[in-house]
Amino acid sequence: MHNATFACLFDMDGVLVDNIDFHVNAWLQFAQHHNRPLTKAQYLEHINGHVSADAMAYVFQREISPGELIVLTEEKEAIYRELYRPHLQPAPGLLTFLSDLKAAHVPLAVGTSAPISNVYFTLDGLPLRPYFDAVVDASMVKHGKPDPEIYLRAAERVGVAPALCVVFEDAFAGIEAGLRAGMNVIAVATTHTREELKDQGAALIIDDFVGLTVAKVGQLVTPV
Ligand SMILES: O=P(O)(O)OC[C@H]1O[C@@H](O)[C@H](O)[C@@H](O)[C@@H]1O
Description:
Rossmann fold; six-stranded parallel β-sheet; globular; binds 6-O-phosphono-beta-D-glucopyranose
């Protein structure tokens, strides 16, 4: 058995599930309903991977009150869940990779900008929750990605030093959050192409989890 000396921290949307097209369509429908201009390019640059408080402030170009934020977030996320529900499935190779990590006693956590309603939908809907020792969502932090708080909190929850954590991320904001937390980042080329990801500072770029081994990930944090 592999002797685990590191932890793996997973982003949710775009990593555990390859669902960003559904988020894009939900945001475009939501924005149209509120007569706000929004394009896919703007989504990718300003919304992808960000917490709803920041995304809504961008869409409406103003501060959103806490009460309004709850209503608007649930409106958008209900559209997303309706669109994605028939397609809900784990990313290719994910279940095998998570089982291998568990067998090697690697502590596992999720660090997501998503609201808790989407965490229930994804982690309990599949179900993926039994694999994870900790889940940190948007409601548990003051500052969303690209701030490192979500990943620092996840590392704290599994009791592993940031330098010994490997973050799996698809979003620019999430990659930056992992790097600013002092962690090793593996970029997943779901939302962005390998070309777009190549200068973002990730130690490795993968298309999905097929064929990924515990040893390969461990090498990123374990001196040879
Ligand atoms: O990629 P993460 O951190 O799981 O982020 C979740 C967020 O990702 C964004 O891309 C979605 O548009 C949001 O609606 C969602 O809540």
